[in-house]
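HUMAN: Can I see a protein plus its fold?

ASSISTANT:
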Amino acid sequence: MDTTRTPRRRAFEARPGRSALVAPDLATLTGPTEGFVELPIGICWQSNRSFDLSRDYWRRSLYQNVLREAGRQVDLNMFLNRDVLVELWPRLVLPKGVRAAWEQAHPELRPALTAAA
């Protein structure tokens, strides 16, 4: 008889074993919309952790890093901006668990509703 148990996966994970962190209210996301932002090493492990928000690629990269790796609500509030998040949402490459968690908590991010608005 096999007594080993496979860990049960959580519904919304950023990666195996790590739950997706979601802002309870998009209005709390008051991060910068322009300039350069440097992420802490706990969120971005690259040697260059500075992102130019005037460039679409770097803006998306910053948001993807924060949405995947933020471990505290204050990180979401500090680095993400509500309007930018809504604009970028359809083009962000995110783990399924992160996308599902955010869309469940904030239906306005769901593609069908965004397209209808």
Summary: Residues 29-116 form one domain. The two ends are 56 Å apart (CA to CA). The chain is about 40% helix and 10% strand.
